[in-house]
Structure formats: structure tokens, C-alpha cells
Specification:
The chain is α/β, with parallel strands linked by helices. It contains 14 helices and 8 strands. It has helices at 2-28, 39-61, 90-93, 95-110, 115-127, 132-148, 154-168, 197-210, 227-238, 251-264, 282-298, 315-327, 345-353, 374-382, and strands spanning 185-190, 215-220, 241-243, 269-274, 303-309, 331-335, 357-361, 369-371. A hairpin with a 7-residue loop joins β7 (357-361) and β8. The chain is flat, with a radius of gyration of 42 Å. Bound molecules: guanosine-5'-triphosphate and magnesium ion (MG).
Length: 383
């Protein structure tokens, strides 16, 4: 019986020792070593951790090995106040035409003055699209003046040519756009496809808004599906109202509604965009006359502006003749002069057609529209 009791006591004591041993072993295993799958792993992890702790301790207590002299933190460089990018001058915009003329003038005048010089000058003006009759008249006058002033140097002749060109434009022509004394001012904009009508309208609207006028645009180009989207973008950009109908609607009806809208809301200026059309298509040209008549039933049309693309050169002249009779054109807007070497077309439009150029387009941006001034224009071409 005692033997049995001793045996039970021994087993119980053995169990207690076992449980205590396991508990101690568990406590020694830090939780970071949970990934250890064997005792070897466990030891390796423990060594690594100890090394890491030692390193942290040594960096915390070590004296700095050297005092690094740093220059005092530099004051941030003041942000350079740059003036807003200067707008290119007219001379820069007309660089293509200027280079074209300048090269030919230098060639013609570089050899001294003889008969060939005058012929070359005339050819240069014709190539610049001044038109043959005007070019020969200008050179005849220039030759007489050069003789009178005993001009012989290239600069003198160039100066006389500039005077001659400026005087070829009618100085008494009204180039400012007309405004109605009462009620909405109405400007109708016409021309062949892609000359820059909608872009010019956008630029005009922005300029008018900047000057404090209220503006409405009539999307009377109902022919091209994307036309009113393009006009909407310009209207939003300029802060102008837009009157439009569905694609395919009667452009006269759009113009009529737009006029009534502008009058009812006391809008200062209504600009009517029209679809581009070939000057040779009679029914389309007649449609322009109809739009104009519809507007005139309601009030006056102060301007009917023909937009001409300067890069089209002499073609612009035949376009202008047809549009002038169909839409009672009051003035021309000569666009894309920045991309043309044929700025001389301005003179042909004025001399051959008697149509005043009122504005020039010198780029695609909203500010790239300028009033036409013959002197600045000629100076920019020849200077
Ligand atoms: N470089 C340059 N591009 C221009 C000028 N005016 C217009 N353009 C460009 O010419 C292209 C045609 O312009 P639009 O205003 O759509 O011409 P549009 O006469 O309304 O064309 P349609 O309505 O299709 O007859 C566009 O790419 C314009 O950005 C300008 O003065 N200079
Ligand atoms: Mg258009």
C-alpha cells in the first residue's frame, strides 16, 4: 500500500516538474520568433535580434565621429517675377511675308538701280500677291519718285516703296466696325469654308466682352454637325450668349430668333456665324442674302464681314466679288496672315475690290485679331 502511495506521489511530482519546464520554455520565446520552426531557427533568430539591439544601442550612445560644418540653410532663392510673356509684335507675326519680300527686295536692290531692278521689284510685288495692275502702277510711281529724290541706295528706295504702298491704301476709309445707335448691333460673318469665320467671331466676342459689352452669338451654321459645338466653346470662353437650333435648321430662322433674343435682353452686339460656302454655288449664296433680309426686317445690319484666308492668295478676289454682291459685304477680315508669305493680297483686296480691310487674323489664339492699319502693316512687312 505504501509502495503504491510513493509511486503516485512520484508520478505527480514528475508531472508538476514537466508542466513548470514547458511554461518557462514558452516564456523565453519572444513573440517575434513565432516563425521559427526548429530550435536552430529559434537560436538564429535570437542571435540576429540581439545583434540588431546591440547596433541600435551603439548608434544611440556613440559620440559623433566628427562635427560636420554645414553652411547655414540657404534662404530660398526669391522666385523671379517674370513679366507675362510679351505678345509677339505684328512684325514678328508677319515674318513669313516679310522674309519673302525682304529677300526679293535685297536681290533686286543689291545690284544698283537699272532697268532690271524695277522689273525685279515689280515681279516681287506680283509674287507677294499685290496683283499685276497694282504692282506695275506702284513701281512706275516709285521709279518716278526715286528719280525725283535722286535716290540710289537700297534703303532709300525701300523707304520710298513703303510710302508708296501705304498711300495705295485709302487713308480715308472707315475701318472701325460699326455699332448701332439703338438696339442690338448686328454683325453678319460670311466666307468660303475654313477661312476662319468662327474663330474670328470667337476673338471678336472675347474682345467685346473685355470692353464691357454684352454679346450674343447666333449659330446660323446649321449645315456642319460640329459647327455649333465649336461656337459653344468660343461663347463659353468669351462669356457670350449663344442662340442655336438643331442641325439642319433654317439659318434664317436662327438669325431671326437670335435677333429677337438679343433685343429682348438688351444685348449690345449680336454676331451671326454662317456656314462656309463656295462662292460659285448660287443657291448657297442666295441663302446668305435671305439671312441678311431676315435680319433687316427686324433692324439694321451694321457689318457684313467677309472672312478671307490670306494663304488663298488671288483666289480670295473672286470669292470677295461674289460675296460682296450676295451678302452686301461691308468689309473684309484677312485671316492667317501669320502663315502666309503673300501679305500683298491686302492691297489687291482694297485696290481691286474697293473693300476696306477692317481686321486681320494673325494666329489661332483669342488675342490674335488686330485692327487693320495700313502703315503698321506696311512697316511690319518692309522694316
Ligand atoms: N494661323 C491661323 N489660323 C487661323 C486663323 N484664323 C483661323 N484659323 C484656323 O483656321 C481653321 C478654320 O477656322 P474656322 O474658324 O473653323 O473657319 P470657318 O470659316 O468657321 O470654317 P467653316 O465654318 O468650316 O466654313 C482653324 O484651325 C482655325 O484655328 C489665323 O488668323 N491664323
Ligand atoms: Mg465656322
Amino acid at each position: 500500500m505504501f509502495d503504491g502511495l510513493w509511486l503516485e506521489l512520484a508520478i505527480g511530482f514528475g508531472l508538476i516538474l514537466l508542466i513548470a519546464g514547458v511554461t518557462v520554455a514558452r516564456r523565453r520565446r519572444p513573440p517575434t520568433h513565432r516563425g521559427a520552426t526548429s530550435a536552430k531557427d529559434f537560436e538564429a533568430m535570437e542571435r540576429a535580434e540581439r545583434a540588431a539591439i546591440d547596433m541600435r544601442e551603439s548608434t544611440r550612445t556613440a559620440a559623433p565621429s566628427a562635427v560636420i560644418e554645414r553652411p547655414p540653410a540657404e534662404e530660398p532663392a526669391p522666385v523671379e517675377e517674370r513679366p507675362p510673356a510679351a505678345r509677339p509684335t505684328l512684325r514678328e507675326r508677319l515674318a513669313k511675308s516679310r522674309r519673302f519680300l525682304a529677300d526679293r527686295l535685297s536681290e533686286a536692290l543689291g545690284r544698283g538701280l537699272d532697268d532690271a531692278t524695277w522689273d525685279d521689284l515689280e515681279a516681287a510685288l506680283i509674287q507677294a500677291d499685290v496683283g499685276a495692275p497694282s504692282a506695275s502702277a506702284i513701281v512706275a510711281d516709285l521709279r518716278a519718285k526715286a528719280r525725283e529724290h535722286r535716290a540710289s541706295g537700297p534703303d532709300e528706295v525701300r523707304g520710298l516703296l513703303a510710302e508708296e504702298l501705304i498711300s495705295s491704301f485709302d487713308a480715308d476709309r472707315t475701318r472701325a466696325l460699326g455699332f448701332a445707335p439703338v438696339g442690338p448691333t448686328v454683325w453678319l460673318v460670311v466666307g468660303v469654308n475654313g477661312t476662319g469665320k468662327t474663330t474670328t467671331i470667337g476673338k471678336l466676342a472675347a474682345d467685346l466682352r473685355e470692353r464691357g459689352h454684352s454679346v450674343a452669338l447666333a449659330a446660323a451654321d446649321t449645315f456642319r454637325a460640329a459647327a455649333d459645338e465649336q461656337l459653344t466653346v468660343w461663347a463659353e470662353r468669351a462669356g457670350a450668349q449663344l442662340v442655336k437650333h438643331q442641325a439642319g435648321a433654317d439659318p434664317g430662322a436662327v438669325a431671326f430668333d437670335a435677333f429677337r433674343y438679343a433685343r429682348a435682353r438688351e444685348i449690345d452686339v449680336l454676331i451671326v456665324d454662317t456656314a462656309g460656302r463656295l462662292h460659285t454655288k448660287r443657291p448657297l449664296m442666295d441663302e446668305l442674302g435671305k439671312i441678311r433680309r431676315v435680319l433687316e426686317k427686324e433692324g439694321d445690319v451694321q457689318e457684313s464681314l467677309l472672312v478671307l484666308d490670306a494663304t488663298a492668295g488671288q483666289n480670295g478676289l473672286s470669292q470677295a466679288r461674289e460675296f460682296a454682291s450676295a451678302a452686301g459685304v461691308t468689309g473684309a477680315v484677312l485671316t492667317k496672315l501669320d502663315g502666309s508669305a503673300k501679305g500683298g493680297i491686302a492691297l489687291a483686296i482694297e485696290q481691286d475690290l474697293g473693300l476696306p480691310i477692317k481686321l486681320i487674323g494673325v494666329g489661332e489664339g483669342v488675342d490674335d485679331l488686330e485692327p487693320f492699319d495700313p502703315k503698321s502693316f506696311v512697316d511690319a512687312l518692309l522694316a
